[in-house]
Amino acid sequence: MENSASPDGVSRRRVLTTTGGVLAGAALAAQAVPAFAATSYDADAIVVGHGLAGLVATAELAAAGRKVLLLDQEPEASLGGQAFWSFGGLFFANSPEQRLMGIKDSRDLAWQDWLGTAGFDRGVSDPSGQDHWAYKWAEAYVDFASEEKHDWLAGLGMQWFPIVGWAERGGGLADGHGNSVPRFHVTWGTGPAVVEPFEKKVRAAVEDGKVTFKFRHRVDGLVTTNGTVTGVQGAILEPSSVSRGKPSSRTVVGSFELKAPVVVVTSGGIGANHDLVRANWPARMGAAPKTMITGVPAHVDGRMLAITEKAGGRIVNPDRMWHYTEGLRNYDPIWPGHGIRILPGPSSMWFSATGKRFNTPDIPGYDTLHTLKTITDTGYDYSWFVTTQKILAKEFALSGSEQNPDLTEKNIWMLLSRIWQTPEPIEKFKKNGVDFVVASSLSEMVRGMNKLTGKNLIDLADLTRQIEARDREIDNEYTKDVQVMGIRNALRYPGDTLSRTASAHKIMDTSAHPLIAVRLNILTRKTLGGLQTDLSGRVLNASGNPVPGLYAAGEVAGFGGGGIHGYRSLEGTFLGGCLFSGRQSGKAAAEATG
Predict the structure, then answer these.
(1) What gap in Å lies between CA 372 and CA 230, rounded to an integer?
(2) Residue 346, preceding bond cis, omega within 30 degrees?
(3) How many CB atoms lie within 10 A of CB 38?
(4) Is the CA virtual torsion 493, 496, 501, 503 positive or negative?
(5) What is the CA radius of gyration of the chain?
(6) Domains of the chain (ranges, CATH numbers)
(7) Which listed site, 343, 404, 411, 544, has its alpha carbon 20 to 30 Å from 36?
(8) How many CB atoms lie within 10 A of CB 221?
(9) What values do phi and psi take at 516, rounded to 5?
(10) How far is CA 413 from the centre of its chain?
């Protein structure tokens, strides 16, 4: 992928408005795609990738009466892709759940936070700029998340846990990075419940003869005719019976070429391809880690980015990415290098590999990428939480549908049990995970930390000094310690008091023990850049013109426009980006083939 931050020039064209993007884009798309009546096609549309964005786009195409071929290199067991494994967090502004919790949110506040977080600076007002369409997608998405999104998804049967989470708090200025208010809505049923309504729609369309699944079909190239994308070609892989998420065979047993007047690429990002992650790692995030764990299945390999670029698509913002700093090595891995992220509350103390406490905004749950840079600058690929059993029990959550059986299985009794006991998945990680040190004293904990890494980097006296200094700040309701301020602030929000923040206490308070140290690894996850698209999801070329017949949605398109998030995310916006861009591209592709 190109790394240049200086975009190629493009000719000026009519700018789509955020409110009329789909309709105007569809009209332009119809003009851009030539008549195909005289050509024999296998379907009206081909969708490459059966993850969430692909399912949404396919559902829209089928609803419009189009015949669709839905291709993926993985077997049927992986239908729904990475979204199935997610925690199911969705970003809404001014939702019923927020109002129930007494949260005052608005479209304007959400847009303020988005702009402060994204930091768009690559030609927003220049039609040739890398951020030109990203900005427009962001504005359209915030409108969507503030208005139609909640009712649309609720109408499909989705429900959300009533306590709204406060992710990525920023910790800076009002117009800077982070969510001013809680906006993280956990779907009742987690990731599988987000996938379910669209999978049902697509399977119903299969029964009606409108959609045909093509599992184990790996796309190796886009077919173009006179400059128009008219199909795909690639390899048929041998049948595979592996369970969801497990790596599947790449043994080729045949080849294929399929034709359609439009192709929609929804193939995901690069998170499992560490070579690509490192190749695009920006200097502003420090040196690329030598050791990382993987937050996505092995099939999230980024292949379709280069394939689509070869067919004329423009890749923008490839250096923007989103990786987590609180990764645990999974003691029971599903895919190679499988890592799980801790979704932390605000109370654990955060230290470097050498035992130096991090400063603001490197506080749990505040500024992911700033903390990532702080960690890489230490010269080590890991850091430490020092915490207590009391904090772990109340504040630790694990990302992933399989790590939250109460929410995923919609088990209210199991969910309520979190009130009086540590969730079982967390206790299992504490017992079986290689990254945990549990101790009855600080000296025992330090010995365990140094033994775990094989290096005597943690000095007991220095760690003791830092913990005792923090503990003295607990004696009053006011403090100069920014993290303790954050804890007090969190406890003013009922949602945090109920479910995500332990009462303020001293780390050395023995009633809160045992002491726990957790080694935190860097966990690969999301691609924030990708194929540049207009508001109808049409892939643009280096001159800024649509590649006829070619659309993209989801992570491969930077969740819209080649980078809807800019440099950073407000969280809960990845699934939503797949939903929104999949719907936009599906509707527009249907109009273009009408």
Answers:
(1) 42
(2) no
(3) 5
(4) positive
(5) 24
(6) 45-267+302-320+528-593 (3.50.50.60), 322-523 (3.90.700)
(7) 544
(8) 14
(9) -140, 130
(10) 29
Angle at 324 between CA 284 and CA 527, to 5 degrees: 70
Residues in Cβ contact with 158 at an 8 Å cutoff, skipping those fewer than 6 apart: 187, 188, 193, 194, 197
Look-up of token digits 């990428």 = 369
8 Å CB contact between 442 and 467: yes
Does this model's pTM top 0.90? yes
Residue 145 CA, distance from chain mean position: 16
* The length of the chain, given as a count of residues: 594
What is the rounded distance in angstroms from the CA atom of residue 181 to the CA atom of residue 169? Answer: 8
CA 187 to each of CA 181, 195, 411, 526: distance values in angstroms, whole numbers, following the listed order: 18, 11, 13, 20
Distance CA 514, CA 400 (A): 26
Listed residue (312, 248, 235) closest to 532, CA to CA: 312
Closest by Cα among 42, 68, 571, 550 to 309: 550
Coil, strand, or helix at residue 186? strand
* Distance of alpha carbon 138 from alpha carbon 141, whole angstroms: 5
Going along 269-412, which residue ranges are E strands?
A: 293-294, 315-316, 321-329, 339-343, 349-352, 382-388, 397-398
Pairing of strands 530-531, 538-540: unpaired
> 296, 255, 208, 185: which is closest to 525 by C-alpha?
296
Asked if residue 514 has a cis previous peptide bond (ω within 30° of 0), the answer is: yes
pLDDT, block means (10 residues), the chain with 594 residues: 38 33 38 50 98 98 98 98 97 98 98 98 97 98 98 98 96 94 98 98 98 98 97 98 97 98 98 97 97 97 98 98 98 97 97 98 97 98 98 96 95 89 95 98 98 97 98 97 97 95 98 98 97 98 98 98 98 98 98 94
Torsion of CA 199, 47, 185, 201, to 10 degrees: -20
Q: How far apart are CA 438 and CA 516, in angstroms?
A: 5
Q: How many CB atoms neighbour CB 313 within 10 A? A: 30
CB 198 within 8 A of CB 52: yes
Q: What does the DSSP assignment read for 518-572?
A: EEEEEEEEEE--EE-B-TT-EEE-TTS-EEEEEEE-GGGBTTTTT-TTTT---SS
Instruction: Give the position of tokens 């047993």.
Output: 253
Tokens of residue 223, six digits: 């077919």
Which residues pair with residue 214 across a beta bridge?
Answer: 71
H helix runs in 36-95, sequence order: 52-63
Dihedral in degrees, nearest 10, Cα atoms 51, 273, 135, 31: -60
